Amino acid sequence: MGRSGGTRKPLIFWAAGVVAYMIAVFHRQSLGVTGIDASARFGVGATGLSVLAMVQLLVYAAMQIPVGVLVDRLGSKRMLLAGASVMALGQLVFALATNLPGAAAGRILIGCGDAMTFISVIRIVSVWFPPRRNPVIVQVTGLLGQLGAVASAVPLITSLHANGWTPTFLAAAALGVVSLIVVGAALRDRPPETETAAPAMRAAWAEPGTRLGMWTHAATQSSAAAFTILWGYPFLVQGEGLTPRTAGLLLTTITVLSMFCGPLLGFLAGRFPLRRSWMVLTVIGSTAGAWTLVLLWPAPVPLWLLVLLMVTLATNGPGSMIGFDYARTFNPAERIGVATGIVNGGGFVASMSVIALIGVSMDLQGDYRWAFAVQYPVWILGAVQVLRYRTRARRLPRLRPATSNA
């Protein structure tokens, strides 16, 4: 399976990366289900909560290309160890914070460490597994990573209400030790020969397939990310009158269902590479359609329709993973890190923008329905750009014939 000729070592290396990624997702999502408690602890409103999520995602997005370059040059192991350490420090700061600046400092550190993690795991897949298996393995990586989101929903809410703020987030910080032990003991890495940073970035950005992946990630990820990272829990509890437990279960539903969607989309992307962009457009259209039903339905929205929305949002994460398949398909191995960083950064810039616009809208008029309508321009722009760069990408000869079409 791996380029070394064996099967066991690549699987061990990949598994170590996945453990680190699961813990990173837990850290990333930990603000979303604590939004109401965070608002009370730090004395902030909707815009203040948006600031916390936005600075985390802003740092995450800004770090993508620098981290991509470093991953290509230093390898995955060093970057995963650095990321785990920085995220653990961030949760420690967040646990002890009592005001908005302190909380923001914690979320900045979490965003920084988180940025080092996923790209490093994607590089493990690209280096150690053959191209034809990459789409499925990347989807399974995302699937397993979502177990961290499961742990950040109901269990974190339960701990927060039972043990309080500081003990809960101190325990979250301790998870960083698990990442350090697993990655340090199980992962071995070898940095490839690479281009210098500037030419690699220019070449990756000039490739239409990279930008196709970036817009794919932006248009498919942003809705579910905004919902799970910050605004879903307040919307369900305050906007729709659900109990905290029911809201937590609905958020968990997104994660669980995405774990089934991921391998299916990965298989389809590998089996029908010419249809990848149609899969992306289907995810965008179905997400916009489900939200339209929810936003137009007279209050309160029935539970079955909210469940339908969760089902649709569950396709967003797996759909966004197709963007990384484009990065791999259209770029050589020596710049896979920086290409992946461009794709990932675009998705999180879009997510950060949606989160911020929802917060501003809530403070201006206080209606969740109008606030969530800010997503429509992102979907429209994303769909147009996917179609645009699909056309450009198809005109060029490909690097990886096995998955050569957009």
UniProtKB/TrEMBL annotation:
**Residue span, Major facilitator superfamily (MFS) profile domain:** 13-394
Please give the start and end residues of each transmembrane region: 12-30, 42-67, 79-98, 104-129, 136-157, 169-187, 218-236, 248-270, 277-297, 303-324, 336-358, 370-389
* Domain of life, per lineage: Bacteria
Keyword set, alphabetical order: Cell membrane, Membrane, Transmembrane, Transmembrane helix
What residue stretch is flagged as signal peptide?
none
Recorded GO terms, molecular function? transmembrane transporter activity
Localization per Swiss-Prot or TrEMBL:
Cell membrane
InterPro entries per the UniProt record, alphabetical:
MFS, MFS_dom, MFS_Efflux_Transporters, MFS_trans_sf
Naming one, the record's GO cellular component terms include: plasma membrane
Task: Give the matching Gene3D superfamilies.
Answer: MFS general substrate transporter like domains
Q: How does it sit in the membrane?
A: Multi-pass membrane protein
What's the name of the protein? Answer: MFS transporter
Which species is this record about? Planotetraspora mira
